[in-house]
Amino acid sequence: MKIIELLLRQRTFIGFFAVLCVFAGLASYMQMGKLEDPEFTVKTAVVVTLYPGATADEVENHVTDNVEIELQTLENLYQIRSLSRPGVSMIFVDLKSDLNNAQLPQEWDLLRRKVTDVKTKLPATAQISIVQDEFSEVYGMLFSVTGKNIENSQLREYAKEFQRRINDVDGIRKVELHGVTQPVVNIDIDKDRLVALELSPMQLISQIQAQDARLNAGSIAIEGERLRLEHPSALHTIRDIENIAIQGRIGFDGNRVVMRLSDIATISLDDKKPSSNLARYNGDNAIVVAVSPSSGVNVVSLGDQLTDLIEEFERELPLGISVDTIAFQPDEVNEAVNDFLVNLLQSLLIVVVTLWFFMGAKSSAIVGISLVMSILLTLSYMNVAGIDLQRVSLGSFILALGILVDNAIVITDLFKVKCRQGLEPVKAAASAVKEMAIPLLGATVIAIMGVLPVLLATTEVAEFSISVWQVMCSSLLFSWLIAMTLTPVMCLWWLKPEADKDNAGNESKGGAFSNIYRKALTSVIRKPQKVLLVLTPLVVATLVALPHVNVNFMPSSTRPIVFLDYWLPNGANLDQTSSDLKKIESWLLEQPEVKDISTFVGASAPRFSMTVEPEPDDPAYGQVLINTKDHGAIEGLVERGDKWLAENFPNAEPRFRPLKMATADKFSIEARFIGPDPVVLRGLVEEAKLIMNEHSNTKYVRDDWRRPSKKITPQINLEEARLAGIHRSDIGAVLRAIDEGLPVASMHLNNRQVPINLRVSNVDLETLPSLPVQSQLGSYSVPLGQVVDSFELGYEQSIIYRRDRLPVITAQADVFGETASEVRKQLEQQLEAIELPRGYRMVWGGEYYDEHRVVKDVFDQLPTASVIMIIIMVALFNSLKQPAIILFTVPLAATGATFALLGFGKPFGFMALTGAICLSGMIIKNGIVLMDQIGLELKKGVALDKAIEDATLNRTLAISMSALTTALGMIPLLNDALFDQMAATIIGGLIVATILSLFVMPALYSFVFRKQEQLNGTPVTEESKHVAC
């Protein structure tokens, strides 16, 4: 007591320190990192292995399977997903979610060692596996260097300079270029010319390479010095290639005909290789510059620097070239932070006005200042701890507002009570702090434990919400510290013991209500069974209403962005995909909702958000990133777009999809079929797609293996090939020359190493047999038809997905007009009724998979949090009965939460679940305050019923203010896409639970401890309670 009094007499120091904390909090706000959404770790790496010439089946069996076997020995492996396609294996390695960022580099090093070890088990022609552990790198800013009717080669130089300048800016982690095409020199020769010259493609290549061979010419000694003889490359320009001398067939004079290469072939510099990816902005050629900021940087300040840099750079660009913005994280951050600051200020104002109405101006000012100090101290802590200011951390402040005032309300209210009892102000303040320090600390820790499952959970969505714990924990502890120090000092400064006029008016206004409440309270204390008469119909009504609450695990982002994914049938080439997308671009740019579009051909947009998982590169795939004028315009655009695309591209598989908030699931509904035989799997998935298509609320129904692709297989006559000295590799090389071309050499052009390819033109299925193939037995060539009997057209499965070494094919669908959860429930019985052969199984993916994985993770942590809460309550009361009474009231929140979600039209999802978990801590905190006050009344020797009644009336204001300020403070969040579920859950759950608990807890206390009186034959006192327990 004396220590507390001594501390309270140091008011000047406490006030001075509080002012310092104000400046520290404001400075921290200016300095701390700012983001739109929280960062979370994608614990996935990709292992890519090229196996040129192999089919998807061969890649799966000879490469993918061998690598997967080795990777399965990783200790922290969660699952392996793989994609096998002709010539390439992609293995996605997902690590366990409980790993933190610091552990990942070591895990990726171990992964690389495993990949190196498996090299000896792969085919000789398989290339070295590459581990991409930056798969989750996020490029929050996307710019396009755009030129109308300007070739990519010109844009490339300006894009590189732009990249260099951005890299020089502090706070930049990485800058990547996308849509940069690889130039290539193509030597195109007509097939008939080759036949006439009696040359095969390989013979022509040999002649070109012989004239460009870089040989070691040795050295020569001159006058005591040894000088190196340089043998330079002969190819420096296109003209050099054109002038290469080529020997053809033997002429009439017995000598071979000699001619220039340009006499028999067309030599051209092409701006792109067939395998390159393309990018366009609003239909014009572009190179996309993707910028990844450093972790913890103030993105808003960084954005200002980049804006200035772009303005300066654009002044140097020639006419026709511009820098355009596709995605600019600083603007999104600025808007998100400003919107939440407005919500925070609105909530703060609501809380202060509510306190003023019930407590008076001075008391509400004390509590309000305590609240602001708690927020400022939390900002200082966040800055030191490296916690960014973003959507979830700001929303957590609003969530905490009502709880933050609890401690200050209790101390302020108790100070006034002590003064009315005749204590001098300093002793009154010290007594209030002494009495409530431990109970309030215990109650505060209990409230913190309410969000402990979010801290302990390990999934990505839980990591997304981790700042709920960080902000709640720090702010509540600071609120307790402020209540124990600054709040009593302000009471001494501003509250005069002789004049309780501050509250008198409010008490007189509430007199009638107070009398009604006292009568009702007295009734339930004397006859506790009356509570059951009220609770029973409420429980029944809740059980009836609960199934009507929609479920939506995680909402879509509110950013005005929508993607259009476009798939042609497997095997389509890049030019066809690009041509289709150009038509789509023209249509999109005519739509009034569209602001701008960015097109990526053969690849996805760079990962500019954690929830965007790029598609594997594929020439049959393209993506359009559409920026609309506002988020509400997306629905109408998608509805018209679906109809237009279906009419104009019937063979394609287009799909509009929104930007997700915190999950990266591909489709809303996914049913995965797992088993050994791809043919059986194909039959199962077709049956599932039929069921999905019949539902009135599904669209974009498809499977991830897509349609089989066409192939042409040469039927080689092995005997004829042996006699002619032709190997299978010779035939393969000639066939490759008619499409992508055969590598010849390379040349140094404009500071770039440019490959030279030979292509044979004017070839189709009919003329293919006449294509010359060089014999290994001599310098002559033979027609391809001599060693190949026929060319057969067939089909092959060119995409094979696996999970944990078993083939898996997924039926996929999106939904409209209903939530994904509701549609999945309606499809569940039919899909699970599909007859599966032995060795096959079906599992759910999509939103359902994410939902159950995250919810299970959170619920797995609930026992830990619950045990800690119970231990604290038992320690506080040295009894089991009071904790049992408090815990009984927690489920009462379900009634209010259920009807609030229905009333506000909000679905139940992860954030609603988080809100429900937080509610338990709030309700228990209020219960501790009430139970502690009953104990204080009993210590005075007051009779049981009277003690319960007086304590409840004494603490009704503090408990009601806490609940009311928390609920009203959540109102601004009802319009927020992420927090609306949580806001509705807490508003309804807390108000109903508080009202009911102010009757239920007293009634239960009376019931439990009156039984003790009857058993013991003595009145209940504080001491007798402990003995009884």
Structure overview:
- This protein is α+β, with helices and mostly antiparallel strands and 1029 residues long.
- The protein is elongated and about 130 Å long.
- A hairpin with a 2-residue loop joins strand 8 and strand 9.
- It starts with a helix and ends with a helix.
- Among the domains are: 1-31 and 360-496, Multidrug efflux transporter AcrB transmembrane domain (Multidrug efflux transporter AcrB transmembrane fold), CATH 1.20.1640.10; 43-135, 2-Layer Sandwich (Alpha-Beta Plaits); 184-214 and 232-270 and 709-796, Multidrug efflux transporter AcrB TolC docking domain, DN and DC subdomains (2-Layer Sandwich), CATH 3.30.2090.10; 515-548 and 878-1029, Up-down Bundle (Multidrug efflux transporter AcrB transmembrane fold); 559-631 and 642-655, Alpha-Beta Plaits, CATH 3.30.70.
- It is built from 35 helices and 30 strands.
- The strands form 7 sheets. Strands 1, 2, 3, 4, 20, 21, 28, 29 and 30 form a 9-stranded antiparallel β-sheet that branches. Strands 5, 6, 13, 14, 15, 16, 17, 18 and 19 form a 9-stranded antiparallel β-sheet that branches.
- Helices cover 53% and strands 19% of the residues.
- Residues 499-510 have low confidence and may be disordered.
